[in-house]
Amino acid sequence: MATHSQHIHTFFPEISDKYRLEILKDLKKYSSQLQQSHLINNRWENLYLDPYHVPAVKHVFLAASVFAKKITNKSVIVPHQGLGISFDEFWFNVAKSGESTGWHDHKKKAIISGVYYLDIHDNSGDIHFRSKVKERWNEWSLKSETGKMILFDSKLEHSVSENKSCHPRISLAFNLYTLPLEIQDQSAQYSTGKFFQ
């Protein structure tokens, strides 16, 4: 496990590779049922799939929650319909060759956001972070690797560089919330206004 600052933690969780492959298999199997939230730069940024169709994601969320509790000292969960909650706080990102993700942050009430890399190839793009100190931006990046998880402060702006490989770059992203959970309705929806220049 590596801690890059008080806001970012990277590690390879003890998740059986079997579960990672199951998620990829189910993602492909139910691709016709993927819901898309918004189109930015001719790319669907977030792809949603009912947790019923990808049951192995619960192993990813458990690993994330256990680690997040260690760094926040609070009980946290990834809300989703599989827990009887009315909304899902996870989504898939599939970036084809030439695609990237612009600068954005996540929801105000989320305490931590995370990404778990499902299928990464050389030159498929790394995650970049930035924070503003006075009038100056500090930027840094972390290498994307299959099986790696990165947890970070939900308010931290991040982007993903262009996929320069000939393979799709596939990841699972999610938000963690503290318990007791404040149920949200409209505020739970992802907003295109969260993307910055």
What low-confidence regions span 5 or more consecutive residues with pLDDT below 50?
185-193
Question: Quick one: overall form?
Answer: globular
What is the number of independent domains?
1
Classify the secondary structure makeup into a structural class. alpha+beta
Keywords:
2 helices, Jelly Rolls, 197 residues, single chain, globular, 7-stranded antiparallel β-sheet, 15 strands, 4-stranded antiparallel β-sheet
Can you describe what's shown?
The strands form four sheets. Strands 1, 2, 7, 8, 10, 13 and 15 form a seven-stranded antiparallel sheet that branches. Strands 9-14-11-12 form a four-stranded antiparallel sheet, with no helix packed on it. Strands 3-6 form a two-stranded antiparallel sheet. The chain has helices at residues 17-29, 57-72, and strands at 2-5, 8-11, 35-36, 39-40, 43-44, 47-48, 76-77, 90-95, 101-104, 112-119, 127-133, 136-142, 149-153, 157-160, 169-178. The radius of gyration is 16 Å and the shape is globular. The protein has two helices and 15 strands. The chain has one domain: q2cbj1_9rhob like domain (Jelly Rolls). The two termini are 31 Å apart. Residues 185-193 have low confidence and may be disordered. The protein has 197 residues and is an alpha+beta fold.
